[in-house]
Write a structure and sequence with these properties.
It is elongated, with a radius of gyration of 20 Å. It is mainly alpha-helical. The chain folds into 2 domains: 52 residues, Arc Repressor Mutant, subunit A; 163 residues, Tetracycline Repressor, domain 2 (Orthogonal Bundle), CATH 1.10.357. The model has no long low-confidence stretch (mean pLDDT 86). It has 9 helices and no strands. The chain starts with a helix and ends in a 17-residue tail after the last helix. Helix 4 runs antiparallel to helix 5.
Length: 218
């Protein structure tokens, strides 16, 4: 019985986050109310307060459900049998783009984060937290750029950190335009080709591989 109760609580929490995604996307975060979210979830405001302190806490939980797996995805590649930093860079970019293109929750949350929220007032703390996570992700990319240059014995056309910032900006821009145009182009295909062109542009060799090695999650 205790296990069933815990499973029910998890299902209710996830249902509230699902409803919040829909309401935030439709109305924007600032205009959405907890009553709107409760109604969309078929629940009560009391159920929301049982699981979340307030709307900011609910918004943070929605963001975490998407951003944390992406951060953890990079760590999983570092711990995998993928020893080639270039293939790991390609695989991580493919993971991010595939998540947005194929996962409904990820796509909705990215759209909300990009176009449906103002990071002011009580949401400023969340903005700072996600900026910090983004910077951490960029630092991980920079480490692989440095490792790739060292392993191939080449000098990058820009610093490893600048390359990481630029690659991050590249796929951020792809995601923004893909969402803004309602998926009007092949995000995975264009993203993969753009990533490869960028890697070659900074002076790295792809080793003749058309896709990331299987051990790198490709």
């Amino acid at each position: 019985m205790a296990r069933r109760t815990k499973e029910d609580a998890i299902a209710t929490r996830n249902g509230l986050i699902d409803a919040a995604e829909l309401v935030f996307r439709e109305k924007g975060v600032s205009r959405a109310s907890l009553s709107d979210i409760a109604q969309a979830a078929g629940a009560t405001r009391g159920a929301i307060y049982w699981h979340f302190k307030d709307k900011v806490d609910l918004f943070g939980a929605m963001m975490d459900r998407v951003t944390l797996p992406l951060e953890q995805g990079f760590a999983s590649f570092e711990d995998s049998t993928c020893t080639d930093p270039v293939q790991r860079l390609r695989a991580v970019m493919a993971l991010v783009l595939r998540s947005v293109a194929s996962d409904e929750h990820t796509r909705r949350v990215f759209e909300i984060a990009l176009y449906k929220v103002e990071y002011v007032s009580e949401l400023m703390g969340l903005r700072e937290r996600h900026v910090a996570a983004s910077e951490g992700f960029t630092q991980q990319l920079a480490r692989d750029f440095a490792l790739a240059a060292e392993s191939q014995g080449v000098a990058l056309s820009m610093s490893a950190l600048d390359a990481a910032i630029s690659l991050h900006a590249l796929f951020d821009g792809l995601i923004r335009n893909w969402i803004l145009n309602d998926g009007g182009f092949d995000l995975i295909g264009v993203g993969g080709a753009s990533t490869d062109a960028f890697l070659r542009g900074v002076g790295l060799s792809l080793g003749g591989s058309k896709v990331p090695a299987a051990s790198c999650g490709g």
